[in-house]
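Reopening this one. Same input as before:
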Amino acid sequence: MRSGLQQCMQVRETGFESRFVDIDFNLTLSDPLGAVAHIFEAIQQPFVAQTAEAVASWVAANQRDRRPPHRYTAEQFGLSEAQLNADFAFYRARFVR
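Same output, byte for byte:
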């Protein structure tokens, strides 16, 4: 995953910045409709009522509290929090506030 993300960042930084749309994950949780509207705005496409209704319908049908919680640790996958923090420090430095 780290390698793929590094490649994406390299492509992005070599003249393709405009082809990337950044969405804060917290926005996808707190305002999914706003997140999708932001994507449409970024790609210069109209965010029409039919699309907004479809997104709202999907969000209503896929509420987090309707699914079982995820309960796992990095260690269950042979990873450690320290290693994950080190591996993704480059990304977090740029995007995580």
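So the earlier flakiness isn't reproducible anymore. For the record, Residues 22-63 form one domain.
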